[in-house]
Every structure is written in structure tokens, then in C-alpha cells.
Write a structure and sequence with these properties.
Largest sheet: 9 strands, mixed
Helix content: 25-40%
Order of helices and strands: HHHEHEEHEHHEEHHHHEHEEEEEEEEHEE
Number of strands: 17
Radius of gyration: 25 Å
Number of helices: 13
CATH topology of the largest domain: Alkaline Phosphatase, subunit A
Distance between the termini: 68 Å
Structural class: alpha/beta
Number of domains: 2
Shape: globular
Length: 491
């Protein structure tokens, strides 16, 4: 008796699988077919790939998403939503009738009005208005759909960031990128289907913003590092050849496949796929991050002035956001389904004029370059780009105890803020939604974060009400029990 024969008779499940008329194999094949996996023939083990491409619910306009998440909440009254009426109220509080029910994080509703010192001008055929802090983004006005009527119930950064990225203020829910990967899989064979690129300071909700939550771990976002290996331990240690690494992975795969046959645990299938993807990434990821083949004109367009002399990951770049925007384009070219850029922090409670200017200088040129680069390569039509933070900022001033210089800032404002979208089925060159003369409340076309998520999924060909996952006896979805597609945003 061989060791294989001995192992086969050790459990009733293995006996059924191998000997009892194929009953176990037939059942397993039926299960795998429901999961969208390869069938089993004889003793051949299934080729399970949780990230295999899947058909959408209907014909999509977008194949990929680039979500430019501006963590910390940019000030919409200083960037996108001009309010000249505020100048009449400069230094005075608004009437109590307007603010009596207003709940703010750090200041009182009776705080003084601070009119934006920014200069707004119209751009493009559409005449969209942009602040003088965004001269590059303004050149893309006709491709941008500006939503000035966003709102959320979350007033602080941690739950607000989770709400914007996961559709819930509670930690442990899947992110929108994970839902997209779960619904559609990925056409990329050598890179993750969901990649996260960070710049600036640490964002409030950290890795919870790209979590797979209760979805299988294959769908979580994979953060690429700013220096060294894009993913920790991706390179082989010294002395370990690729041939030896391949032999080790083959042995590990055999063990995992046998365990999968024993248990049917799809997390084991996810582990097998993850190991195989990591092996392929050992070649694909360094090539992705090597910008030496990008033309000087392209690097200049993004604002990447550093001389490229090989694999970029060997040297940290001071303008990480610009590099991340270029990498986002390269990831989409390589069929990565969902790319999330997180730039933090826009949380300007103090020194707003100074800090907002610095963040705009870091992000404005590269954001515009990304849109133009995608468009000239024919990728913008199938790539949905979203730009926005977790909420906005108040028209009232937040003063600090400092007396030196201009220390004024703005508090959190979740009741009316601005976000924009472009490409991938979105109608550019328009404004959706309207706020009052003070930017305090929404007058027209209120858009909740659930509505935004429903619209993003719609652009990908997914019905947000049908994209569900059963967990703890309940069918969950990204939009919970709410959300509607905002048809005004669509082309």
C-alpha cells in the first residue's frame, strides 16, 4: 500500500470522492460551477480562481475605476463651489434661524462667516467654475461632472472615510473596490485586481478603507509601497533562485489543493491563487514600477521632474501623488479593475490658506495629467475617475489660539460638499446639484454616498441591488438598503 492509498481510506469524505461512483466529485463540481470555477474531471483538481473575469449584469460603460480619495475633506467653498454672498456676512454669524439645528464637530453654529479669498473663474465650453488653486484641473472642465450636492450623516473622519469607501461607518464592511472585484473579477493575470496607492500623511481609517470585510480575502485591496518592493517580501531572499521558488510553490500548492479537497474551504482556494499571483508579480510588479520607458514629455506632464534611471521603487519620490497618478494609468493599461489613490490630509482646521495651497500644488497638475493621459490613449471612455473626500468644510471660520500669521481654518461639514467624476459613462461638462448662498444646505438634487456607490456600480454594469453576499444569515450589499442611480450624472 502506498502512502497515497493509505491517505485515501482515512476519511469517509475521501472515500466518497475517490471511490463511491464519483458522488463526491459530482457534488464538488456542482458547487464549483455555482462559484464560477472550473469543473472536476476524475482525480484532476479544480483550477479555482476567485478573480476570474465575470460577466456584468448589463452592458457596462466602464471597465475600470480610479478613485482619487482626498482623505481629510477638501474645502469645497475654496475649490469648487463659489459663494460670493459670504462676503456680505464676513466676520458675522448667520441668523439663528439658519443654524439652530446645525451640529458641527468642533465649532459652534454661531461661529463667524469666513468668505473664501479664492478667485473663481469659468473654464471650457461648459463654463465650470474652479478656484485659482486648481489651474490644471480647470483645463479638464469639459470632461468633469461636478456634483455639488453630496451629503453624508458622518461628521468625523474615521466613520466618514469608512462611509465613503465602504458604504458604512462601521469597520469590517467590504470596500467598494472589493465589491467591484467580487462582482466582476479582474482581467489582469499578473497583478492584483484591486490596488491601493498612498501619498501624504496617514489617513484616518487606514487599511480598513480597502478591506474585503466579510468577502473572501482575494478581493481586498493590495497596497503598493512607496519604496523598495511594491509589496513586502515580493523579492526572493538572496541565494533563492526562481526555479527553487517555483518548486517550493508547487509543493505548497499540492498540499493546499489536498486540503481544499478535504474541506471545500474557499479561503484555501484564495490562498492558492494568492501564492500564484505573488509569483507572477515578481516579474510584473517591477516592470510596472519602472518608469524609465515613459517619455520625458509624459513625466513632465505629470510633474515628475526626477530623473528616472531604472526601477522607480529603488528610490522614494518626493512627489508621490504624481507618481501614483502615472502608476494608476499604467495599472489600468494592465487591466487592473480598481485603483484607489489615497492622498492625506486635507483636514485644515488651521492655516487653511497655506495647507490647502500646498495640497493643491501636490495634486492639481498630476490629476489633470491623468485625465488627459487616459483620454489621449482612448482609456477615459472605459475608465471611471472619481475625485473627492469624506465630507466638506464649513463656510464658518474655525479660529485657533495662535496669534502669528493666518491661522484660520474650517470645520467638518457633511451636509453639503462637492465631488467630481469623469469618463466611464459620466456626462462631463456639467454641474449636478445646488447649495444655498452660504454653502450650508442643499437646494437641488441631493446625492447621498449610497447614491454615489449605486452610480459607480451602474457604470461598471452592476445592479447595486443584485450585487449581494450572504453573511451571518443576511444578504449584504454595498448600498445597504438604500441608494439609487443618479441618472443626471450619466452620459
Amino acid at each position: 500500500m502506498t502512502s497515497d492509498d493509505f491517505r485515501m481510506i482515512q476519511s469517509r469524505r475521501l472515500f466518497l470522492q475517490q471511490y463511491a461512483g464519483g458522488i463526491g466529485i459530482a457534488a464538488l463540481a456542482h458547487l464549483l460551477n455555482q462559484q464560477g470555477s472550473a469543473s472536476v474531471v476524475g482525480r484532476e483538481l479544480p483550477n479555482i480562481n476567485p478573480m476570474m473575469p465575470r460577466a456584468p449584469h448589463f452592458a457596462p460603460n466602464a471597465k475600470n475605476v480610479i478613485f482619487l480619495f482626498m482623505a481629510g475633506a477638501p474645502s469645497q467653498v475654496d475649490l469648487f463651489d463659489p459663494k460670493p454672498e459670504l462676503r456680505k456676512w464676513e466676520g458675522r454669524p448667520l441668523p439663528p434661524s439658519m443654524t439652530k439645528d446645525l451640529r458641527l464637530a468642533f465649532i459652534k453654529p454661531t461661529a463667524e462667516i469666513w468668505a473664501s479669498p479664492r478667485v473663481f473663474t469659468r473654464h471650457g465650453r461648459s463654463g465650470l467654475e474652479f478656484s485659482d488653486y486648481l489651474p490644471h484641473m480647470a483645463t479638464c472642465a469639459d470632461d468633469i461632472c461636478m456634483v455639488r450636492s453630496m451629503y453624508t450623516e458622518q461628521i468625523n473622519h474615521f466613520p466618514g472615510s469608512l462611509m465613503m469607501n465602504c458604504g458604512s461607518p462601521l469597520a469590517g464592511r467590504p470596500s467598494i473596490g472589493a465589491w467591484a472585484a467580487y462582482g466582476l473579477g479582474s482581467e489582469s493575470q499578473n497583478l492584483p485586481g484591486y490596488v491601493v496607492l498612498s501619498s501624504g500623511d496617514q489617513s484616518a481609517a487606514g487599511s480598513k478603507q480597502w478591506s474585503s470585510g466579510f468577502l473572501p480575502s482575494s478581493y481586498q485591496g493590495i497596497p503598493f509601497r512607496n519604496a523598495g518592493d511594491p509589496v513586502l517580501y515580493l523579492s526572493n531572499p538572496p541565494g533563492l533562485s526562481m526555479e527553487t521558488q517555483r518548486a517550493r510553490l508547487d509543493a505548497l500548492r499540492d498540499l493546499n489543493e489536498q486540503r481544499y479537497i478535504d474541506t471545500g474551504d474557499l479561503e484555501i482556494a484564495s490562498r492558492i491563487v494568492s501564492y500564484e499571483l505573488a509569483f507572477r508579480m515578481q516579474s510584473a510588479a517591477p516592470e510596472l514600477l519602472d518608469l524609465s520607458k515613459e517619455s520625458p514629455k509624459t513625466l513632465q506632464m505629470y510633474g515628475i521632474s526626477k530623473e528616472i534611471d531604472g526601477a522607480l521603487q529603488d528610490k522614494p519620490d518626493p512627489n508621490r501623488y504624481a507618481v501614483n497618478c502615472l502608476l494608476a494609468r499604467r495599472l489600468v493599461e494592465r487591466d487592473v479593475r480598481f485603483v484607489q489613490l489615497i492622498h492625506s490630509s486635507w483636514d485644515d482646521h488651521q492655516e487653511l490658506n497655506k495647507k490647502l495651497k500646498r495640497n493643491c500644488e501636490m495634486t492639481d497638475q498630476a490629476t489633470a495629467a491623468l485625465l488627459k493621459d487616459l483620454k489621449q490613449r482612448g482609456l477615459l471612455e472605459t475608465t471611471l475617475v472619481v475625485w473627492g473626500g469624506e465630507f466638506g468644510r464649513t463656510p464658518m471660520v474655525e479660529k485657533s489660539a495662535r496669534t502669528e500669521g493666518d491661522s484660520r481654518g474650517r470645520d467638518h461639514h457633511p451636509f453639503a460638499f462637492t465631488l467630481w467624476m469623469a469618463g466611464g459613462g459620466i456626462k462631463g461638462g456639467q454641474v449636478v446639484g445646488k447649495t444655498d448662498d452660504f454653502g450650508l444646505t442643499i437646494l437641488e438634487d441631493k446625492v447621498h454616498i449610497h447614491d454615489l456607490h449605486a452610480t459607480i456600480l451602474h457604470c461598471l454594469g452592476l445592479n447595486h441591488e443584485q450585487l449581494t453576499y450572504r453573511f451571518q444569515g443576511r444578504d449584504f450589499r454595498l448600498t445597504d438598503v438604500a441608494g439609487k442611480v443618479v441618472t443626471k450624472l450619466l452620459a
